[in-house]
From TrEMBL:
Official protein name in the record: Peptidase A2 domain-containing protein
Entries under InterPro entries matching the protein: Peptidase_aspartic_dom_sf
UniProt lineage: Eukaryota, Fungi, Dikarya, Basidiomycota, Agaricomycotina
Organism of provenance: Dendrothele bispora (strain CBS 962.96)
Family annotation (Pfam families): gag-asp_proteas (PF13975)
Gene3D superfamilies noted in UniProt: Acid Proteases (2.40.70.10)
Amino acid sequence: MSTAGEFEVLLQDEGDLKAGSVVHRDITEQFRSDLESGDMEKIIIVASQTEGLRSVFPKINGKPEEIEVVLDSGSQIVSMSSSVASSLNLHWDPTRVIHMQSANGQLQPTKGLIRNVPFEFGGLTIYLQCHVIEKPPYQVLLGRPFDTLTESTIKNFPDGEQEVTITCPNTGNKMTVSTFPRGKLKRSDNVKPTL
């Protein structure tokens, strides 16, 4: 085998590959082979197989209820379940419908659009357009429109924790918001502050 950087040329047949085949080297193998002697014993840090989505708990429409709001920058919309919209006394325009494609490829229409919904993050209020969905697997989902409106910046930590800093487009004020693992309670009443 002859190697040149990240590629290797087979000098003899190996399995189904014929001599002379150009093969892309495994990135980990390449990294390890380029190490100086003695460095091989060092630990290589790798990514976990999955990381769960994170949630925030803003006040929505001025209501005191804590609603779990999932952060998902892979979504093109901000959406809310119809039951949450009703509980927050929000009303939607049923003529503003889009068709959502699910993971299995099916298309389903939304129920409508709620315009200018106030979301309050610790005194900073932003207004979002929420598509209403019947029985989604979340209460509220903040997608790319939230990220672009607030110019959000995300700081991730090795332990999975995450902070999101947002900017109010109307005032320019900034707020750093703690996030929580999706499906977990925001806080426990048993936790006492430490001084």
